[in-house]
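quick one, 260 residues, struct below
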Amino acid sequence: MPLPLRTLPAAALVCAGVLLSGCAGGTGPQPSPSTAAAERVPDGGKNAGGGRSAPEPRAQTLQAREIPGLGPRTRAAIPAGTRQALVVSGKGADANTSTAVLYERDAATGWSPASARWPAHNALRGWTDDHRQGDLRSPIGVYGLSDAGGLLPDPGTELPYDQESLFTISGRGFEGEPLEGSFDHVVAVDYNREPGTSPLDPARPLGDDKGGGIWIHVDHGGPTQGCVSLERDRMKELLRALDPGLRPIVVMGPAEVLAR
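---
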């Protein structure tokens, strides 16, 4: 996206046993209380008829849910303390359309979706694991989401939010669509930047050649220069959902790479 000139869930099912008693009008003989109690007491592992009693049911350990579509290498890159992840899954290595889903992790049950599946755009030429300035590809990887900002006022996010007139943009995109309003709200992706600063901060710790200014911002209806874009209402929804206490991240790349 051009920059300002300054720069799951399956729930565990627990089956309840149902005790069936005889019909109210039954006339058959009923055991005495003492006999009934005796029949319920194990006798050396045997029941009243001399056979073995049924074994006690074993407790089952449920495996915590993982984020669908992520392979072991991608999951290993997610920090242990992270409990919120926006997964942006590209439709192909060279595709500029993708989908995004926000997930949250519960300590007991694992990851589950916290949003619907949102349509998104990424860079014009798709994705790369070696992003360079001007390559028109979005960087693949797992990155923090630390800071937000925009031309318009804070819509209610808990992230630090920098409202600034320098988030203004004009002109047209790759498909002739107007770019105005694309930076009304943004979340900085912590790729080659200093977390804890405004998304407008020009610092590039990896060097200028590695690019920077990778944001999640308002979609303008076409591919970006390197950012990820979401529809305006979805962008506001994301900002309101992100919680610094959950150490939010973005996991982004083509689906076939994220599955590794």
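The chain is about 10% helix and 25% strand.
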